[in-house]
Structures are given as C-alpha cells and as structure tokens.
Amino acid sequence: MAAFRRVAGYFALYVPTGPGYKQISTGTTDARLARRIEGMITQLKNQKDFEILRALVSKPKKLHIDTLWMAYQNNQLEELRARLKAAVLADFLPGWMLDTQRNAPAASADQIRQVKRLLGTMGPTLPPLVYSHELTPGAIRDRINALAVSSGTARHYLYALSSFCAYLVAHAAIPSNPCRDADAVPRPKKSGKRTVWKPVEVDQAIVARAIGADRIAFALCAATGADLSSTFAVQVKHLRLLPVGSTPDRTKSLEHRIDIPGTKTEGRDRKGVRIEPWAVPILRQAMEGKGAEDYLVTGCTADTISRHWKAAAEAEGNAGYWLRDTRHSYGVRAILAGYPLWEVSKWLGHANEAITAAIYCQFDYEVARLVVAGTITPAAEQPAKTTKKTTARATTTFLRRDTDTPDAGDERRRA
User: Fold this and answer.
1) CA within 20 to 30 Å of 324's CA: 183, 195, 227, 311, which one?
2) pTM of the model
3) In angstroms, rounded to a whole number, what is the distance separating the alpha carbons of residues 382 and 165?
4) CATH number, domain 200-343, options 1.10.443.10, 3.40.50.980, 3.60.21.10, 1.10.10.10
5) What would the mean pLDDT of 338-343 be, rounded to a whole number?
C-alpha cells in the first residue's frame, strides 16, 4: 500500500476495511506527511482496528482523516473509539420530546427547554454535548452546578435530564442512567424552611394584578397550596365547586374542593383539597367554554409565571415574597382557621403529619392570629414572619388598637 499522487495534486491512500480496500485522499500535498499517515493506516491495519478504518470510508462519513491523525498524534485513539461507538444525542431528542408531550403534556414545555439547555443546544451558556458517551455523572453534576438557578429549579433540571437519559437507556444508546448515581450527581439541596407567610389580602392583591394564564396559576397556587408545576396538570374535571350562590359550610363538609394531580406519579395526587373561597370566581371564569379534559393553565411556562409573580409582588410592596411562598401561606392560614393538622398535611401532599408539624408548628400562632385579625402590625420588612427571632421584634413594633389594656394573649404569656 503506497502513497500515490492524484491528478489534483493530493496524495491518496488505499484503506483496508476488512474484506477489501477503498481509496481516500490524505488531504495533503506533502509527500513526507502522506507517508506518515500511511504508516498510521498500516499500524491500525496490523492491530485489526477495522472499526476506525471503516469509519474513514463510510457514507455518510463518520470520521475524517485529519481528525484521526490528530487523535493518533495525541494518543487519544481510545477516546476516538468511544465516540465512534456513541450515539448522537440529537438523533434521540425528537422521539423523547414526543414521548414527553404525550405522557406529561402539562410539564413538557419546561422539561424540553431544560434538557436542551443542559445539552448546550440553547444559548451560549454551556458547551454542547454531542455524543452519548459525554453524558457522564461528572459532566451532569458540573452542568447543573453551572446553572444560575435556585436549588429547587436545579432539581427540576436534573429530573428532566433523567427522563431523557431513561429514554436513551430504553433505546440502548447508553447502558445506564447516569443521573441516578447519587454519589456523583448529588441532588441539589432544598432551600431552608420557609418562614414567610402572608394574610389572604396580600395574595388577593397580587393575583388581582395578573391577567390570563398568570392569574389562573396565581390563584391555584395561593388558594389551594398547589406547586406551580402541578397547576399545569389541573384540568376542568379536577375542580369540584359548589353551585353558584351556595355558601361554604365547614360543619356540613360543604366546601369548594380540587383534586390536584401529581406531576411525577399518581401516588402524589392530592384528593379533596380545600379551595379558599376568594379564588372561586377566578376559577369559574377560567372554566367557561372548556370541556372536562381541558387544562386551566395553557400557553405559558413556569419561568414566565414566576417572573410575572415577582413583578406583581414587588409592585404590591412585597418584594421577596415568592410564588412558592404562597403554598406556605395557604398552610398557615388553614391551621389558623382551625383545620386539623392531619387534614392540612393531606392537602399539602406531605408524606405524614410529622413533616407538616416540623414546618408549620414553628410559628407563634398567638402572634399570627393577631396579625390576621389586624390587632398588631409587625415590622414592615417582615410583615408576617413569626418565627421566634421575629416575634420579639414584632411585639415591640406593633400598633395596638387598645393601647391601654393588655390583650388576653399578654395575660397568658405572663402566666
């Protein structure tokens, strides 16, 4: 097998592909370089590395001679072999997207966007991942850590990518799901316990600033304790509203209810969750002209809704009160209204009452009730935060309606 000169002036080689030979161009007019490339081809033939040699002559071409030459010079043939065996991730994206849109239509838009961003196909933030062998636990961990998002959002990115990796496993593109390696890909830690809550008037004022899908999503989160991701899965059939003109009666179990679908498994479904009455007119309006299978929140993404909530909250003078905090407000208000802990725990989707107690029993409910009643007004910067640390500040900055007479709560505290 000798180098020879082509009519165009470039040297060409015959490449052994196993049962036969095929001619390729070396891409160089330098006879010395062509002989060195010929020596590389001969060595690969002697090593019976026909996988690489066939890649040089395949159609469409999987490997160019200059790429092989650089890998040969830099002792990177093993990496090159791994890449040739790997699947192209872009080839599997369309199929996974169709599966996601069919199995989880409410959350599919966000999941697809998150996976594309992690793969580097959206924007210049992350370098692109092209081949399946690049989906290592370490690479996934580093990419998630590089995202400028909260820990909760980072978890959603991880869940979305894990769904894509599971699809790759099912189609034999990768041997196992790298996202499930909890040691190499630690789950982003959840934020600390939420301690900020607001009276219902604050949520109402923020919701009143919204229109369209934003308003419906705001109302569902604030009046039912639903997660934002769950609101996209709520259909008309999940609402169980009392007839128009009916007055809710807790003693007779006559209250507006909603079944909130679980976003990951049916085991996370919440049945018979109480809807705060103020949001019912908004939900009735959202149901108009829709069938039982129609979704209430459509035509937007979770990121968009979160940004709009932030802007509305700041406009109402409640900067730092996030949409996620409305779930906390809902739970506190339910307990203040006298609903038992076991029932509130079920509405919030907690695994047991101990979880609810650990989060919601840290409040000074005596002060909280006075806040709701309007008897006291805590410090402006933390208008409804009643942890032990802020309770002391609230009791020194409140405005008491009857300034001369201590209330019953003061008497009990002295006792």
Assistant:
1) 183
2) 0.59
3) 43
4) 1.10.443.10
5) 88
